[in-house]
Structure formats: structure tokens, C-alpha cells
């Protein structure tokens, strides 16, 4: 491709609203442009990288036995109403009406569409298992689009769905696609980990996220420092054991704590450690109010709460709800005297607090010398807190450390969540009607592009892996008006293209410094500069990643390029 004939609008300055490296560099290098908040056009270079990622995805998905199709982005509301998600998905679902006032949604995901399709076409166990996938644009009305392609309102996704007659079949396909995903992200050169995750609004159980390690990641990964264990912080169980202090119980006492609300304020005022305090928070779990207790230095994990109660929604009670139910404000809540109509659950660590502190359910008062087995024995103890760095790893090997991650893939075992709601059934070998068992598997294709850009860059620009770069070679004549340089550059361009290489030829009438800066910014793996020694047939080959420079005769060049490219 001649550079004068394509669209690569590079920028010298960092765009003011671009916060992270990938966003900055993909804009500056001319890979994309913003149309609206969270909505981007992929320019020729960006589209070429996307196509290479998509090709890797297709190869691995096809190799795992999946078959590609394409479903509509515009989806009938009736399908979402069948599954129940029309009412629960939330404002991220972009809804609209057609000219006949019928409700539709722009596809945020395609469980409903694929389930309706398969239920109408597959009736017998003999047609199962079946795994179908697509690569398509998705839409989610993010409240706060940010970080460029990492959190947008329109994005490119590969989503796959598998249908099974039994759990063993689902497990087999899940494992195949887990391996395929690992291969995809490995082939993209990413530093990633597969972590145990929560299924969220998708439903289902047994799910893993594929997280690219990055300081700007929005998810925290809890991982073992000595084993392969890794989980999203929301899902990591706490296996720590707690020993009670060896001291006698003191008499329960109510004390005045005027204007002391937070754990920090109360512990400082009473001259005790946060570990000696019991934090009490009132949650609305679906339509039920539940008082949740954790140790003062711990935080309530709402995902664990949701899973414990098998709930659809978990939210902190409003100040008005709290006042009505507990007769006091947040900051004075506690389990003693809370009333029989409020269920109480506590984290295991609370059981080990001896002579602790908790709210007295009276404004500006707290109890001291609180002991759970004596003072509120009607409480149920569960694992309810977020894991912390230094806790034992749940697999029994090593201790927990934290890292930030960008989610690029997610695999779920959905079970019968959608097939039962939408009556996607089949006849088994005994002629009995059974709901199909489902799996769901997603990859953020445009997110993967951004994640690669986030991990592969330096102070000059992008540094693409050879298999993902928009071009493999970048030919730059220093002076395009010089007939000898122009002729040699054109000769190399033609011969290398014939040899099967992807070549960008900078035939622009620009200063050499501009051409070199653009080349570094774009990040093509090999740059071939045709300069003052063109008359001798000598060119300069520079490796973008290492900065290594070689002077070669044009006849030597093909062999050196082949060796470099084949090793990448």
C-alpha cells in the first residue's frame, strides 16, 4: 500500500481527553477517530489489526468445533421479555421503538436471539452438541465511557453459544473453548491470566474471565504468589482462620459517641483498633432487608451476598429505608436489639472479635465489650468479605497478591437459565422433553486491540507484534524526488509484495524526520530506509522493537527479512 493513497492521519500532540496509553497512541498513530463519546471509527490501520485478531479468533474457534454465523444487531423486545432480562438488564440496554411503536433493543449480547434460533431448528438430542459463534458490533449505553476502546458504547465482540444434551458435553466444550481462548490471547502476545469470575447479568455458574495484566485495568485480580490460582477479587473465597484473643469477656456497656459515625472515627474516639470494631450495613437484597456484619477493617463483598441469597439485586438500603427499619441512621447500626424482622448475617471474622465495638441502634451511641456468641447469637456466619493481600490463597498454596486487569474474554456455563425461560427443549434418547444445557463464550475483539496497544508500546509509539501489525514492512525513501532512491524503493516495494509481504511504502513528499517519526509512531516491525547509498544498492533495515539497525545490500535483504519474520 502506498502511504499517499491511504488514510493515516497522525498527530504530534496527545489528545486532551485521552487518559491511557492505548487511547493516546491509537489516536495519534491514526488507527481510529472518535465520532461520539465511546463511539469510534476504525481507520485503515486499525481495521487491518482488527482483521488479524479476528483471523486468529476464527482459526481457534473453528479448530475447537464452533461454526460461524451472523445474527441481527436489532433485536425484538419480545425475546428479552421471554428471558426476563428486558426488565432487569438496566439502562445499559439501548432500547427503541420502530414506526409501528414496537419495542426493540440494539444487541448488547445475543443469548435471547441464539436461543430462539436454536429452539426453532433443533428438536432432537441427535443434533447436539452444537456450538455457534459470530463476530459483530455490540451496543451498551455505558454511563461513563472511558479509556478509548476499553469501555465504549459501541464495540466489536466475538460471542459464541453452545447447546448440549447433558452436563458432561457442556464440560467438554467449555474446556475446549477455554483452551482456544488461552491460545488466542497467547498468539496475540498478551500477558494475561484466566481468573475465576462472577457471571453477573449473564446468569449461570462456573465462569472464567481472561484478564490482561495492566496498571490501568478496572478489575482487581487476586492471585497466589506460589501457584496458578487467580480469581476476580469479587469471587475469591476467604479461607483465613481466626483465633479469639485469650481474654475474659467484659460486661456489655452502652457509651456515648456523639458525631462519631465511621469506623475510623469510632475506633479513634474509643481508642481501639478497627479490627476490634464490627461494621454493620443494611442491604436490600431483592425485596428483603438484611443487616450484614463484617470486621471493621474488612469490606462487604456484595457479589458473595448476592450468591448467598441467590438474589437478582443487592443494594445498600437508602438512608430513609435504614431509618424506617432500624430507628437510627447509618453509622449507629448494630446487631443487638435490631428486632426479629431483620435477618442478620455476619462474616466469619466477626465471630472471633472479643470485647468489640458495634453500633447501638441509637443515634450517637455504641456498645463496647461486644461478643457475638453472648450478645447476638441468632446470627448466621458466612464468607462475606473481600479477600485482602496477605490472606492465604484459597487453593492452600502461598498467599494472595493483587494485580489490575483488563477483561478481554469471558466464558460461562449458563446451564438452563435461558433454555427453560424460553422453552428451548429437545427430545432425549428416551423421547422425553428436556431443556437444552447452554454455554456462552465472549471475546472483546476491539478491547483486545486496545489491550495489545496498552502492552506493546514505548516512548516513540506503538510496537506491534509481527503477526498483528497492520503491515510487516515499512519502506521509506529519504527523498522521494531523488530518482535513484525512488526507483530502488519502488523496486523493493514491488518485489517484497510479490514475495507475499505486507508492505507500506511511504511515497509522501515529506521531510525525513516526519516520515521516521510517523513510522515509529505506527509501530510496523521492520523499517527499510532507502537513502544516500541507494546508488550502491545499500539500504538500512531497522527493527522497531529493539532499535537494531543493519546496512544491507538489496540482494541480501529478502533472506534477512524472511529470517526475522519467520522467528516472530
UniProtKB/TrEMBL annotation:
Any single biological process term in GO: prolyl-tRNA aminoacylation
Gene Ontology cellular component terms for the protein in this record: cytosol
Location within or outside the cell: Cytoplasm
GO MF term (any one): aminoacyl-tRNA deacylase activity
Record Pfam families: HGTP_anticodon, tRNA-synt_2b, tRNA_edit
Keyword Iron found: no
Keyword list, A-Z: Aminoacyl-tRNA synthetase, ATP-binding, Cytoplasm, Ligase, Nucleotide-binding, Protein biosynthesis
Domain Aminoacyl-transfer RNA synthetases class-II family profile: from-to ranges: 38-465
Enzyme class label: ligase
Keyword NADP: no
Domain remarks: Consists of three domains: the N-terminal catalytic domain, the editing domain and the C-terminal anticodon-binding domain.
Family membership: Belongs to the class-II aminoacyl-tRNA synthetase family. ProS type 1 subfamily.
UniProt name for this protein: Proline--tRNA ligase
Organism expressing this protein natively: Peribacillus saganii
Lineage, opening ranks: Bacteria, Bacillati, Bacillota, Bacilli, Bacillales
Recorded name of the encoding gene: proS
